[in-house]
User: Fold this.
Amino acid sequence: MAIILKENVPTIVQGITGHQGSFHAEQMKIFGTNIVGGVTPGKGGTTVKGVPVFNSVSEAIRNTGARASVVFVPAPFAFDSVVEAIDSGLELVTVITEHIPFHDMVKLKLYAKIRGARIIGPNCPGITSVGIAKHGIMPNSIFREGSVGVVSRSGTLTYEIVNTITEAGLGETTVIGIGGDQVVGTNMQEAVSMFEDDERTKAIVVVGEIGGTAEEETAELIKRKVTKPVVAFIAGRSAPPGKRMGHAGAIITGGKGTAQSKVEAFKSAGVAVASSPSEIPKLLKERLKL
Amino acid sequence: MVDFLEYEGKELFKRYGIPVPNFHVIRAPEDVPEFNGRMVVKAQVPTGGRGKRGGVRIVNSRDEAIKAIQEISQISFDGFKPEAFVLEDAVNVKRELYISVTLDRSVELPIVLASAEGGVDINSVPQEKIYRHAINPFVGVTQYLKRELSSFLGLSSEKAEQLGKILEGLYKIYDEMDASLAEINPLADTDSGLLALDSKITIEDDALFRHKDITPKYYILDPVEREAKEKGLAFVKLEGDIGIIANGAGLNMATIDLIALNGGKPADFFDLGGTDDPQKVVDALRLASKVTHKVLFVNIFGGVTKCDTVARGIVQAFKELKPSFKLVVRVRGANEDEGRRILEENGIRSLLNLDEAVKEVIRLAGE
Assistant:
């Protein structure tokens, strides 16, 4: 199996007529994702890369039976698009868009919970379940079917790490980029918990970074209930305090959110902490006794 | 992040019904009015601890106020000169309280923080002396929250009512202004009621599209950091000599960490982001060259950003800049072969393996 993206659900792309939306709709199709339509208000009736475009999410659902969406809509309109997706009954909404105000995300996350929908992201590369489907913008070429579950707060660093795992002859079940923002729809703890429950996942890789306390809370969760081997990598060990390192969430404030605190939390939970991306497959093999 | 100066925050407080002492904003000595009684002159600077450094003075006449302003103008506050002054009524403070609304990342909700030990950095106040209460944005400020908070701060019923209004105002500022921090420190407890003596308001850049009336002012001292901010680039100046450009924040941090782990000293954090425009790469190299002394390391894992795009940008930038430093390029992922071919044709060696590239950077930096 996999986590979250357990089957190739019919999926639409919100913001499909944009540059990123159209490019990645095609890339997702090439990966094998069941892209059944796109939504851009006012562009209904047209097609993008052979994909029919609709004016609204509900219209797209009526015509295609879509159950999930991938959102590329620019930040000022993203709140509205995600609410529309949730209101229309989509189960899974993966938000690639960067720079959505965290105030909007706090509300969207609560709203999704009320309506029983799941948000992944924002400011994330999406989710890929190898051999099933890809929702988002991860490069198609880096994966190989295997038994490692990867959860990451980053984009390109995730590709780097997945690539090393693949090249080492291991492979992945699901790779989820939860996003680099302060508030994310699906957090690290949930992802680790789901990997623990997923039969096919034999080991878990957690890619964290400075800022917030998600890694510390994940370490607590691992102590309590995770039986599978976990390997972690923390980015930002040499980052200065008070500076935002690219991601909205990557900032050390009031002495909280340091790499050191996260590394120590993971170590105390029995997690192997890699000091470089290339060390990750070695530690995985050790822990999996391969 | 857009930081408001004290007076900008207090003007916001007035609009949202939060009581503040009467104040004047002074930009030049001639702005100082005639007055009777005691007033306070306060430097308007985007940094804390100004009182300890002589940026806050009690004055009893117009002449004293002008003298104070002239003196304070000579002080550097973490490198910042005061661009304005607040002249406000001096207040007899019985107690200094603290109250703020901010995001609690752990519970992913806005949170009210309050303490009876205000007037100091809240991070230095013991946890058990801080009141914390999350607010659901679909619910807002409740009556029971106001009661709990007043009781925690030990306020009389009259002042409790006033505190309730202050909390509502502060939460509205947080919510309507998309603030990441709306803070009153200290909130003065006086015989005549509660008064906000200082303000700290920070607005997220991401929300500025909703606030066209706010002209963002960025208080950044480093000229290269300021240039990057104005151009909307994610750049942080570090102390070392090895320039870094990578695509993606996480990969960038990991690159810096690897350089540092191997004994090198990174000069910057610089996220190229996702781009298919070689010109953006040229601009990035131009900026990074301002902080690079020995070696510039470009680390790309191609996805949205293609390796060949980066290669074209690097080749063009090197023709334009003719830099004295050395270059190490690592390209991997989308269009890596084409990228490497372009680089090689122009005499620039590239590597595929990150660890090997880092070793090469360290070797060249040591030459």
